[in-house]
Amino acid sequence: MKLQGIYLIVAIIFVSCHMKENKMTNTHCNYSIIWKYKIKPESKEKFEREYGPRGTWFKLFSQSINYAGSFLNKSEEEADTYILIDTWTDKKSYEDFKEKNREVYDRLSAQFENLYEREEKVGSFDLVK
């Protein structure tokens, strides 16, 4: 990932997490998981719909009061490349939700894997306070 991309990720996390409160819990997001996708060009619309701000993953995660939002960003430098940032109040809440909903999570992952050529977990990040 180019240095410019790293600055974009930092800016997005700052704006989305630090400036907006999670209205349901009145807390900021403290934990982010960042994914990088190289999508199949013919799947662009469906990928953006399913992984976007009101897509299937958003609907699943929104069942948790500790989910703070997801932010899908398209690269300007790399064709068909996206960064997805999932934000939560804390790591434990994310892991508990994922474990509790493992069957649905795995089913959706399998259902949508035909939309991309590559999925890479960039990493998990804790907010520095």
What does this protein look like?
The protein has helices at 3-18, 44-51, 56-61, 91-100, 102-112, and strands at residues 31-39, 67-74, 81-88, 116-126. It has 129 residues and is of the alpha+beta class. A hairpin with a 6-residue loop joins strand 2 (67-74) and strand 3 (81-88). The longest helix has 16 residues, at 3-18. Mean pLDDT is 86; it is low at 18-26.
Main pleated sheet: 4 strands, antiparallel
Tally of separate helices:
5
Strand order of the largest sheet: 2-3-1-4
Low-pLDDT residue spans: 18-26
Assembly level: single chain
- N-to-C series of helices and strands: HEHHEEHHE
Strand content: 25-35%
In round numbers, the mean pLDDT is: 86
State the gist of this model.
With 129 residues, the chain is of the alpha+beta class. The chain contains five helices and four strands, in the order αβααββααβ.
